[in-house]
Amino acid sequence: MPCIPLLGATHPASTFARSFFAPQLALLADAENGRACPELSDEDWLRLGVRRAIEDHPSGRAFLQHLALGGADAPAHSHFFETLKSTRRLALVAEVSNGLAGGLPALPGDWWGCVPELANFDVYAGDGHFHAAAAHDPRDAQDGCKDALGHFFSLNLRSHALAHLTVADQAARRKEHDMRALKRLSIASPVRGQWTQGVLCVGARRD
Protein backbone atom coordinates (compact mmCIF):
# COMPACT_ATOMS: atom_id res chain seq x y z
CA MET A 1 0.00 0.00 0.00
CA PRO A 2 1.96 3.06 -1.17
CA CYS A 3 1.14 6.11 0.93
CA ILE A 4 2.87 8.54 -1.40
CA PRO A 5 1.47 9.49 -4.82
CA LEU A 6 1.99 6.88 -7.53
CA LEU A 7 4.80 8.52 -9.51
CA GLY A 8 7.32 7.14 -11.96
CA ALA A 9 10.68 5.97 -10.63
CA THR A 10 12.46 8.91 -12.29
CA HIS A 11 10.02 11.57 -11.10
CA PRO A 12 11.80 14.15 -8.85
CA ALA A 13 9.22 13.74 -6.08
CA SER A 14 9.67 9.96 -6.12
CA THR A 15 13.46 10.30 -5.93
CA PHE A 16 13.17 12.77 -3.07
CA ALA A 17 10.78 10.49 -1.16
CA ARG A 18 13.17 7.54 -1.38
CA SER A 19 16.07 9.65 -0.10
CA PHE A 20 13.98 11.33 2.59
CA PHE A 21 12.67 8.08 4.08
CA ALA A 22 15.84 5.99 3.59
CA PRO A 23 17.32 6.52 7.11
CA GLN A 24 13.97 5.74 8.73
CA LEU A 25 13.50 2.55 6.71
CA ALA A 26 17.06 1.41 7.47
CA LEU A 27 16.29 1.53 11.19
CA LEU A 28 12.92 -0.12 10.65
CA ALA A 29 14.58 -3.17 9.10
CA ASP A 30 16.22 -4.05 12.45
CA ALA A 31 13.59 -2.64 14.79
CA GLU A 32 12.70 -4.85 17.77
CA ASN A 33 9.09 -3.63 17.69
CA GLY A 34 8.57 -4.25 13.98
CA ARG A 35 5.94 -6.73 12.81
CA ALA A 36 4.62 -7.99 9.47
CA CYS A 37 1.23 -6.33 8.97
CA PRO A 38 -0.29 -7.11 5.56
CA GLU A 39 -3.17 -4.62 5.80
CA LEU A 40 -1.04 -1.60 6.75
CA SER A 41 2.69 -2.28 6.91
CA ASP A 42 4.96 -0.62 9.44
CA GLU A 43 6.80 1.06 6.58
CA ASP A 44 3.64 2.66 5.21
CA TRP A 45 2.39 3.47 8.68
CA LEU A 46 5.58 5.38 9.52
CA ARG A 47 5.42 7.22 6.20
CA LEU A 48 1.82 8.19 6.96
CA GLY A 49 2.84 9.46 10.39
CA VAL A 50 5.60 11.65 8.98
CA ARG A 51 3.30 13.09 6.33
CA ARG A 52 0.54 13.71 8.87
CA ALA A 53 3.01 15.70 10.99
CA ILE A 54 4.58 17.84 8.28
CA GLU A 55 1.54 18.48 6.07
CA ASP A 56 -1.14 21.04 6.88
CA HIS A 57 -4.52 19.32 7.22
CA PRO A 58 -7.22 20.29 9.73
CA SER A 59 -8.01 16.68 10.71
CA GLY A 60 -6.99 13.09 10.22
CA ARG A 61 -9.99 12.49 7.99
CA ALA A 62 -8.98 15.44 5.77
CA PHE A 63 -5.46 14.02 5.59
CA LEU A 64 -6.74 10.63 4.37
CA GLN A 65 -9.00 12.32 1.83
CA HIS A 66 -6.02 14.31 0.56
CA LEU A 67 -4.05 11.08 0.11
CA ALA A 68 -6.85 9.45 -1.83
CA LEU A 69 -7.31 12.47 -4.09
CA GLY A 70 -3.55 12.55 -4.75
CA GLY A 71 -3.52 9.00 -6.07
CA ALA A 72 -2.23 7.17 -3.00
CA ASP A 73 -3.88 3.98 -1.76
CA ALA A 74 -4.95 5.43 1.59
CA PRO A 75 -6.15 3.13 4.39
CA ALA A 76 -9.74 3.16 5.57
CA HIS A 77 -10.20 5.90 8.15
CA SER A 78 -11.46 3.45 10.79
CA HIS A 79 -8.39 1.23 10.42
CA PHE A 80 -6.00 4.20 10.37
CA PHE A 81 -7.37 5.58 13.63
CA GLU A 82 -7.36 2.13 15.25
CA THR A 83 -3.66 1.75 14.51
CA LEU A 84 -3.00 5.00 16.40
CA LYS A 85 -4.09 3.19 19.58
CA SER A 86 -1.49 0.44 19.18
CA THR A 87 1.09 0.33 22.00
CA ARG A 88 3.34 -1.75 19.77
CA ARG A 89 3.32 0.89 17.02
CA LEU A 90 3.93 3.61 19.60
CA ALA A 91 7.02 1.72 20.79
CA LEU A 92 8.11 1.36 17.16
CA VAL A 93 7.85 5.10 16.57
CA ALA A 94 9.92 5.79 19.70
CA GLU A 95 12.54 3.22 18.67
CA VAL A 96 12.96 4.60 15.15
CA SER A 97 12.80 8.23 16.28
CA ASN A 98 15.45 7.75 18.98
CA GLY A 99 17.63 5.87 16.52
CA LEU A 100 17.45 8.73 14.04
CA ALA A 101 18.11 11.39 16.65
CA GLY A 102 20.99 9.51 18.25
CA GLY A 103 22.68 8.75 14.94
CA LEU A 104 22.87 12.27 13.55
CA PRO A 105 26.40 13.75 13.45
CA ALA A 106 27.23 17.25 14.59
CA LEU A 107 26.47 19.92 12.02
CA PRO A 108 29.38 21.52 10.12
CA GLY A 109 30.64 24.55 11.96
CA ASP A 110 29.46 23.28 15.36
CA TRP A 111 29.57 26.38 17.56
CA TRP A 112 29.75 24.30 20.74
CA GLY A 113 32.92 22.63 19.47
CA CYS A 114 34.69 25.95 20.02
CA VAL A 115 34.13 25.71 23.78
CA PRO A 116 36.78 23.33 25.25
CA GLU A 117 34.87 22.94 28.53
CA LEU A 118 31.96 21.36 26.60
CA ALA A 119 34.08 18.90 24.62
CA ASN A 120 32.69 15.86 26.50
CA PHE A 121 29.12 17.09 26.72
CA ASP A 122 26.06 16.84 24.55
CA VAL A 123 24.23 20.17 24.72
CA TYR A 124 20.45 20.24 24.66
CA ALA A 125 17.71 22.82 24.67
CA GLY A 126 14.28 21.84 25.93
CA ASP A 127 10.81 23.30 25.51
CA GLY A 128 7.15 22.46 25.79
CA HIS A 129 4.49 22.74 23.10
CA PHE A 130 0.75 22.93 23.77
CA HIS A 131 -1.85 22.69 21.05
CA ALA A 132 -5.61 22.98 21.03
CA ALA A 133 -7.67 20.12 22.38
CA ALA A 134 -9.23 17.74 19.87
CA ALA A 135 -12.98 17.53 19.35
CA HIS A 136 -13.09 14.12 21.06
CA ASP A 137 -11.02 15.13 24.12
CA PRO A 138 -12.96 15.03 27.42
CA ARG A 139 -14.06 18.21 29.16
CA ASP A 140 -13.15 19.08 32.74
CA ALA A 141 -15.79 17.79 35.14
CA GLN A 142 -15.93 21.09 37.07
CA ASP A 143 -15.87 23.90 34.53
CA GLY A 144 -16.61 22.02 31.31
CA CYS A 145 -13.47 23.33 29.60
CA LYS A 146 -10.99 21.36 27.52
CA ASP A 147 -7.31 21.58 28.40
CA ALA A 148 -4.62 21.96 25.78
CA LEU A 149 -2.49 18.85 25.30
CA GLY A 150 1.19 19.42 26.01
CA HIS A 151 4.34 17.69 24.80
CA PHE A 152 7.93 18.37 25.86
CA PHE A 153 10.89 18.07 23.50
CA SER A 154 14.67 18.26 23.56
CA LEU A 155 16.84 19.67 20.79
CA ASN A 156 20.46 18.52 20.44
CA LEU A 157 22.25 21.79 19.76
CA ARG A 158 25.14 19.99 18.06
CA SER A 159 23.16 17.93 15.54
CA HIS A 160 19.76 19.70 15.74
CA ALA A 161 18.11 16.34 16.38
CA LEU A 162 14.68 16.78 17.96
CA ALA A 163 13.45 14.15 20.44
CA HIS A 164 10.24 13.73 22.40
CA LEU A 165 10.71 13.77 26.18
CA THR A 166 7.28 13.28 27.69
CA VAL A 167 3.61 14.20 27.61
CA ALA A 168 2.35 16.84 30.02
CA ASP A 169 0.76 15.59 33.23
CA GLN A 170 -2.88 16.60 32.87
CA ALA A 171 -4.02 14.73 35.97
CA ALA A 172 -2.23 16.90 38.54
CA ARG A 173 -1.90 20.11 36.48
CA ARG A 174 -4.12 21.93 34.03
CA LYS A 175 -1.03 23.09 32.13
CA GLU A 176 2.22 21.59 33.38
CA HIS A 177 5.33 23.78 33.49
CA ASP A 178 8.43 22.70 31.57
CA MET A 179 10.64 22.44 34.67
CA ARG A 180 8.14 20.27 36.52
CA ALA A 181 8.05 17.89 33.55
CA LEU A 182 11.85 17.65 33.49
CA LYS A 183 12.05 16.98 37.21
CA ARG A 184 9.61 14.07 37.09
CA LEU A 185 11.40 12.30 34.22
CA SER A 186 13.00 8.98 35.08
CA ILE A 187 16.66 8.33 34.38
CA ALA A 188 16.09 8.19 30.64
CA SER A 189 17.94 10.01 27.92
CA PRO A 190 16.26 12.50 25.61
CA VAL A 191 18.08 10.70 22.81
CA ARG A 192 20.46 7.85 23.60
CA GLY A 193 18.97 5.89 26.48
CA GLN A 194 20.39 7.31 29.69
CA TRP A 195 21.09 10.52 31.55
CA THR A 196 24.43 10.63 33.33
CA GLN A 197 24.31 14.07 34.94
CA GLY A 198 20.96 15.09 36.45
CA VAL A 199 17.91 15.97 34.41
CA LEU A 200 18.91 19.26 32.77
CA CYS A 201 19.57 18.81 29.09
CA VAL A 202 22.52 21.20 29.16
CA GLY A 203 24.59 18.77 31.27
CA ALA A 204 24.27 15.28 29.78
CA ARG A 205 27.78 13.82 29.43
CA ARG A 206 28.68 11.64 26.48
CA ASP A 207 31.28 9.48 28.24
Description:
This protein has 207 residues and is α+β, with helices and mostly antiparallel strands. It folds into 2 domains: 91 residues, no CATH class; 98 residues, no CATH class. It contains 6 helices and 5 strands; from the N terminus they run αααααββββαβ. Strands 2-3-4 form a 3-stranded antiparallel beta sheet. A hairpin with a 5-residue loop joins strand 3 and strand 4. Helix 1 packs across helix 2. It starts with 11 loop residues before the first helix and ends with a strand. 17% of the residues are buried.
First and last CA, distance: 43 Å
| Number of distinct beta strands | 5
Pick out the low-confidence regions: 4-12, 191-207
Query: How much strand?
Result: 5-15%
Mean pLDDT: 77
- Spatially, the strands of the biggest sheet line up as 2-3-4
What's the helical proportion of residues? 25-40%
Features:
207 residues; disordered C terminus; two-stranded antiparallel ribbon; 2 domains; 5 strands; 6 helices; single chain; 35% helix
Strand and helix layout:
Blueprint: H1 12-29, H2 42-54, H3 60-69, H4 77-83, H5 87-103, E1 121-122, E2 124-131, E3 149-156, E4 162-167, H6 178-184, E5 204-205
Antiparallel strand pairs: 1-5, 2-3, 3-4
In short:
The protein is an alpha+beta fold and about 210 residues long.
